[in-house]
Amino acid sequence: MQGLPRILLGLFAGLPLRLLHALGTVLGWAIYGMSPTYRRQLRENLERAGYRDASVRRAAIAHAGRMLAETPAMWLRPQDEVAALVREVRGLEAALAARDAGKALLFLTPHMGSFEIAAQYASHRVPITVLYRPPKMRWLEPLMHEGRSRGSVRLVPADNRGVREMLLALKRGEAVGFLPDQVPGEGEGDWAELFGEQAYTGVLAPKLAERDNVACFLVYAKRLPRGAGYALVLHAYPRRLPGETPTRHLNRALEELVRECPEQYLWGYNRYKVPARAKPRPS
Question: What is the pLDDT of residues 13-38, one digit of tens each?
Protein backbone atom coordinates (compact mmCIF):
# COMPACT_ATOMS: atom_id res chain seq x y z
CA MET A 1 0.00 0.00 0.00
CA GLN A 2 2.84 2.40 0.80
CA GLY A 3 4.46 2.14 -2.64
CA LEU A 4 1.58 3.61 -4.63
CA PRO A 5 0.86 6.51 -2.24
CA ARG A 6 4.55 7.38 -2.23
CA ILE A 7 4.66 7.44 -6.03
CA LEU A 8 1.55 9.61 -6.23
CA LEU A 9 2.74 11.99 -3.51
CA GLY A 10 6.15 12.13 -5.17
CA LEU A 11 4.57 13.25 -8.44
CA PHE A 12 2.52 15.82 -6.55
CA ALA A 13 5.63 17.05 -4.70
CA GLY A 14 7.36 17.88 -7.96
CA LEU A 15 4.76 20.43 -9.04
CA PRO A 16 5.67 24.13 -8.83
CA LEU A 17 4.75 25.67 -5.47
CA ARG A 18 2.45 28.18 -7.14
CA LEU A 19 0.46 25.33 -8.72
CA LEU A 20 0.43 23.37 -5.44
CA HIS A 21 -1.06 26.36 -3.66
CA ALA A 22 -3.64 26.85 -6.40
CA LEU A 23 -4.68 23.21 -6.14
CA GLY A 24 -4.64 23.54 -2.35
CA THR A 25 -7.11 26.38 -2.50
CA VAL A 26 -9.54 24.12 -4.37
CA LEU A 27 -8.85 21.31 -1.89
CA GLY A 28 -9.48 23.60 1.07
CA TRP A 29 -12.87 24.64 -0.24
CA ALA A 30 -13.77 21.05 -1.11
CA ILE A 31 -13.09 19.89 2.45
CA TYR A 32 -14.97 22.87 3.86
CA GLY A 33 -17.95 22.06 1.67
CA MET A 34 -18.02 18.33 2.37
CA SER A 35 -17.41 18.26 6.13
CA PRO A 36 -20.06 19.87 8.36
CA THR A 37 -17.95 19.18 11.46
CA TYR A 38 -14.89 20.89 10.02
CA ARG A 39 -17.01 23.78 8.75
CA ARG A 40 -18.56 24.28 12.17
CA GLN A 41 -15.23 24.12 14.03
CA LEU A 42 -13.58 26.59 11.69
CA ARG A 43 -16.40 29.10 11.99
CA GLU A 44 -16.68 28.73 15.78
CA ASN A 45 -12.95 29.10 16.35
CA LEU A 46 -12.78 32.20 14.17
CA GLU A 47 -15.72 33.74 16.02
CA ARG A 48 -14.13 32.98 19.40
CA ALA A 49 -11.13 35.00 18.32
CA GLY A 50 -13.31 37.85 17.07
CA TYR A 51 -12.87 37.18 13.34
CA ARG A 52 -16.34 37.47 11.85
CA ASP A 53 -15.20 39.04 8.60
CA ALA A 54 -15.91 36.72 5.66
CA SER A 55 -12.60 37.69 4.02
CA VAL A 56 -10.58 36.19 6.89
CA ARG A 57 -12.70 33.02 6.77
CA ARG A 58 -12.23 32.65 3.02
CA ALA A 59 -8.48 33.11 3.32
CA ALA A 60 -8.29 30.61 6.20
CA ILE A 61 -10.16 27.98 4.15
CA ALA A 62 -7.75 28.44 1.26
CA HIS A 63 -4.62 28.35 3.43
CA ALA A 64 -5.74 25.14 5.15
CA GLY A 65 -5.89 23.49 1.74
CA ARG A 66 -2.52 24.95 0.76
CA MET A 67 -1.01 23.44 3.89
CA LEU A 68 -2.17 19.98 2.78
CA ALA A 69 -1.09 20.46 -0.83
CA GLU A 70 2.41 21.69 0.03
CA THR A 71 3.16 18.91 2.54
CA PRO A 72 4.37 16.31 -0.03
CA ALA A 73 6.87 18.89 -1.30
CA MET A 74 8.11 19.52 2.25
CA TRP A 75 8.61 15.79 2.83
CA LEU A 76 9.82 14.47 -0.49
CA ARG A 77 11.86 17.21 -2.17
CA PRO A 78 15.60 17.33 -1.35
CA GLN A 79 16.13 19.10 1.95
CA ASP A 80 18.31 21.84 0.45
CA GLU A 81 15.58 22.56 -2.07
CA VAL A 82 12.98 22.76 0.69
CA ALA A 83 15.11 25.12 2.79
CA ALA A 84 15.69 27.32 -0.26
CA LEU A 85 11.95 28.04 -0.40
CA VAL A 86 12.49 30.30 2.63
CA ARG A 87 13.06 33.62 0.88
CA GLU A 88 13.45 35.80 3.96
CA VAL A 89 13.96 35.35 7.69
CA ARG A 90 12.91 37.79 10.39
CA GLY A 91 14.22 37.60 13.94
CA LEU A 92 16.92 34.98 13.38
CA GLU A 93 19.67 37.19 14.77
CA ALA A 94 18.29 36.97 18.32
CA ALA A 95 18.15 33.17 18.17
CA LEU A 96 21.71 32.92 16.86
CA ALA A 97 22.93 35.33 19.53
CA ALA A 98 21.28 33.22 22.23
CA ARG A 99 22.90 30.09 20.81
CA ASP A 100 26.30 31.79 20.73
CA ALA A 101 25.77 32.75 24.37
CA GLY A 102 25.45 29.08 25.27
CA LYS A 103 21.66 28.79 25.36
CA ALA A 104 19.74 25.83 24.05
CA LEU A 105 16.98 26.85 21.62
CA LEU A 106 13.31 25.97 22.02
CA PHE A 107 11.27 26.63 18.88
CA LEU A 108 7.50 26.59 19.37
CA THR A 109 5.80 26.30 15.97
CA PRO A 110 1.99 26.38 16.11
CA HIS A 111 -0.44 25.21 13.41
CA MET A 112 0.24 28.34 11.40
CA GLY A 113 1.65 28.87 7.93
CA SER A 114 3.95 26.10 6.72
CA PHE A 115 5.03 24.60 10.03
CA GLU A 116 6.62 21.68 8.15
CA ILE A 117 9.37 23.87 6.70
CA ALA A 118 10.53 25.49 9.94
CA ALA A 119 12.54 22.53 11.28
CA GLN A 120 14.01 21.76 7.86
CA TYR A 121 15.36 25.30 7.65
CA ALA A 122 16.52 25.42 11.29
CA SER A 123 18.51 22.21 10.86
CA HIS A 124 20.85 24.05 8.50
CA ARG A 125 21.97 26.14 11.48
CA VAL A 126 21.80 23.78 14.46
CA PRO A 127 20.90 20.14 15.19
CA ILE A 128 17.23 20.01 16.14
CA THR A 129 15.13 17.37 17.90
CA VAL A 130 11.46 17.50 16.96
CA LEU A 131 8.64 15.95 18.96
CA TYR A 132 5.88 14.38 16.87
CA ARG A 133 2.68 12.37 17.11
CA PRO A 134 1.87 9.63 14.61
CA PRO A 135 -0.81 10.63 12.08
CA LYS A 136 -4.27 9.09 12.31
CA MET A 137 -3.75 7.57 8.86
CA ARG A 138 -1.12 5.00 9.80
CA TRP A 139 0.09 4.45 6.23
CA LEU A 140 1.34 8.06 6.25
CA GLU A 141 3.70 7.58 9.21
CA PRO A 142 6.67 6.07 7.31
CA LEU A 143 6.50 8.88 4.74
CA MET A 144 6.15 11.54 7.43
CA HIS A 145 9.04 10.10 9.43
CA GLU A 146 11.27 9.91 6.38
CA GLY A 147 10.32 13.39 5.21
CA ARG A 148 10.83 15.10 8.54
CA SER A 149 13.90 13.30 9.91
CA ARG A 150 16.51 14.42 7.41
CA GLY A 151 19.89 16.04 7.79
CA SER A 152 20.27 17.36 11.34
CA VAL A 153 16.58 16.85 12.19
CA ARG A 154 15.96 14.12 14.74
CA LEU A 155 12.37 12.98 15.15
CA VAL A 156 11.24 11.57 18.50
CA PRO A 157 7.74 10.38 19.53
CA ALA A 158 5.56 12.40 21.91
CA ASP A 159 5.89 9.93 24.78
CA ASN A 160 8.12 9.57 27.83
CA ARG A 161 11.05 8.33 25.76
CA GLY A 162 10.71 11.22 23.34
CA VAL A 163 10.55 13.77 26.13
CA ARG A 164 13.72 12.31 27.66
CA GLU A 165 15.49 12.58 24.31
CA MET A 166 14.33 16.17 24.00
CA LEU A 167 15.61 17.06 27.48
CA LEU A 168 18.97 15.53 26.64
CA ALA A 169 19.14 17.62 23.47
CA LEU A 170 18.50 20.78 25.48
CA LYS A 171 21.16 19.73 27.96
CA ARG A 172 23.61 19.41 25.05
CA GLY A 173 22.77 22.97 24.03
CA GLU A 174 20.99 21.96 20.84
CA ALA A 175 17.59 23.00 19.50
CA VAL A 176 14.20 21.45 20.14
CA GLY A 177 10.94 22.09 18.35
CA PHE A 178 7.32 21.05 18.67
CA LEU A 179 3.75 22.18 18.18
CA PRO A 180 2.63 24.03 21.32
CA ASP A 181 -1.06 24.19 20.37
CA GLN A 182 -1.80 20.48 20.03
CA VAL A 183 -4.37 19.19 22.50
CA PRO A 184 -2.30 17.18 25.02
CA GLY A 185 -3.17 13.77 26.37
CA GLU A 186 -4.34 12.80 29.83
CA GLY A 187 -2.17 14.25 32.58
CA GLU A 188 -0.11 16.34 30.12
CA GLY A 189 -2.08 19.56 30.27
CA ASP A 190 -4.00 22.13 32.23
CA TRP A 191 -6.91 24.41 31.44
CA ALA A 192 -6.08 27.95 30.35
CA GLU A 193 -7.88 30.70 28.48
CA LEU A 194 -7.31 30.90 24.73
CA PHE A 195 -9.24 33.53 22.80
CA GLY A 196 -11.69 33.90 25.66
CA GLU A 197 -12.46 30.22 26.25
CA GLN A 198 -10.79 27.53 28.34
CA ALA A 199 -8.60 25.21 26.26
CA TYR A 200 -6.72 22.15 27.52
CA THR A 201 -3.11 23.26 27.11
CA GLY A 202 0.16 21.34 27.32
CA VAL A 203 2.34 22.11 30.34
CA LEU A 204 5.64 20.96 28.81
CA ALA A 205 6.31 23.94 26.53
CA PRO A 206 5.85 26.68 29.16
CA LYS A 207 7.94 24.73 31.68
CA LEU A 208 10.82 24.37 29.24
CA ALA A 209 10.54 27.98 28.10
CA GLU A 210 11.27 29.20 31.64
CA ARG A 211 14.48 27.22 32.08
CA ASP A 212 17.57 29.35 32.61
CA ASN A 213 19.58 27.54 29.93
CA VAL A 214 16.84 27.83 27.28
CA ALA A 215 16.01 30.64 24.86
CA CYS A 216 12.47 30.20 23.55
CA PHE A 217 11.12 31.53 20.25
CA LEU A 218 7.72 31.35 18.59
CA VAL A 219 8.18 30.52 14.91
CA TYR A 220 6.01 30.34 11.82
CA ALA A 221 6.66 30.26 8.07
CA LYS A 222 4.34 32.71 6.33
CA ARG A 223 3.28 31.77 2.80
CA LEU A 224 4.20 34.48 0.34
CA PRO A 225 1.73 35.43 -2.42
CA ARG A 226 1.51 33.46 -5.67
CA GLY A 227 3.70 30.59 -4.49
CA ALA A 228 6.79 32.77 -4.16
CA GLY A 229 8.02 30.84 -1.11
CA TYR A 230 7.97 31.58 2.61
CA ALA A 231 9.04 34.18 5.11
CA LEU A 232 10.26 32.59 8.34
CA VAL A 233 9.30 34.73 11.34
CA LEU A 234 10.77 34.34 14.84
CA HIS A 235 9.58 36.14 17.97
CA ALA A 236 11.19 35.85 21.39
CA TYR A 237 8.86 34.30 23.96
CA PRO A 238 7.34 37.19 25.94
CA ARG A 239 7.75 37.65 29.68
CA ARG A 240 5.16 36.17 31.99
CA LEU A 241 2.79 38.70 33.54
CA PRO A 242 2.32 38.88 37.32
CA GLY A 243 -0.17 36.24 38.46
CA GLU A 244 -0.25 34.58 35.04
CA THR A 245 -0.14 30.79 34.99
CA PRO A 246 2.45 29.16 32.71
CA THR A 247 -0.25 27.74 30.40
CA ARG A 248 -2.07 31.07 30.14
CA HIS A 249 1.31 32.68 29.42
CA LEU A 250 1.77 30.27 26.51
CA ASN A 251 -1.73 30.87 25.16
CA ARG A 252 -1.35 34.64 25.39
CA ALA A 253 1.87 34.39 23.38
CA LEU A 254 0.08 32.25 20.79
CA GLU A 255 -2.81 34.72 20.61
CA GLU A 256 -0.37 37.54 19.86
CA LEU A 257 1.33 35.48 17.17
CA VAL A 258 -1.94 34.46 15.50
CA ARG A 259 -3.13 38.07 15.45
CA GLU A 260 -0.12 38.83 13.27
CA CYS A 261 -1.32 36.54 10.47
CA PRO A 262 -4.78 35.17 11.31
CA GLU A 263 -5.60 33.96 7.81
CA GLN A 264 -2.79 31.38 7.96
CA TYR A 265 -3.74 29.82 11.29
CA LEU A 266 -5.39 26.38 11.15
CA TRP A 267 -8.76 27.42 12.57
CA GLY A 268 -10.40 24.11 11.68
CA TYR A 269 -8.29 22.24 14.25
CA ASN A 270 -10.40 20.99 17.17
CA ARG A 271 -8.42 22.97 19.74
CA TYR A 272 -11.15 23.05 22.40
CA LYS A 273 -11.88 19.35 22.69
CA VAL A 274 -11.77 17.64 26.09
CA PRO A 275 -9.35 14.68 26.10
CA ALA A 276 -10.51 11.41 27.61
CA ARG A 277 -10.10 11.35 31.40
CA ALA A 278 -8.90 14.96 31.52
CA LYS A 279 -10.09 16.93 34.52
CA PRO A 280 -13.31 18.86 33.85
CA ARG A 281 -13.22 22.18 32.06
CA PRO A 282 -13.49 25.08 34.54
CA SER A 283 -16.87 26.79 34.51
Answer: 899 999 999 999 999 999 999 999 99
